[in-house]
Fold this protein.
Amino acid sequence: MRFRGERVDLLAPDRIARMGLAVVPEGRQIFSNLSVAENLLAFGANRNATKEPWTLERVYALFPRLAERSRNMGNQLSGGEQQMLAIGRALMTNPYLLVLDEATEGLAPLIREEIWRCLDTLRGQGQSILVIDKYVQRLIRLADRHTIIERGRVVWQGDSAQLAADPSLWQRYIGV
């Protein structure tokens, strides 16, 4: 696997992070014994010399709920708030690429929509995003390119128009 021209599959996670790749894992993996602000500040780094780096204020503007709960511990947040925190934490690293694994899995519909709106906002700001998710309708509106992988093998690639035009793909490979 390559990122920005360099093989990364054998690199240590900290090296990959320093290259500008940030992952929001499926299980969120926030620090439950740290406050919201501490979770965010622990990941703050502008290693890529971004002109407008992510700060607490920018994350709070993207997710106002986190600002309201900035002093709450990670384990005092709802699942949706924890997901917002996980995304905010990844953004604080100022990544070239933000990877989200099942970003809306298990969330209430209103919170799920809030996460999708956030991803759309990030895309509009020029953030490169890779989303792994089963909500095809939302992905079609968000993504430029789509890849369907089955058992570790690419079985289809195309753009949003192509994917939208062939719902049989969804049934065949995604089961939607």
In short: The CA atoms of residues 159 and 165 lie 10 Å apart.
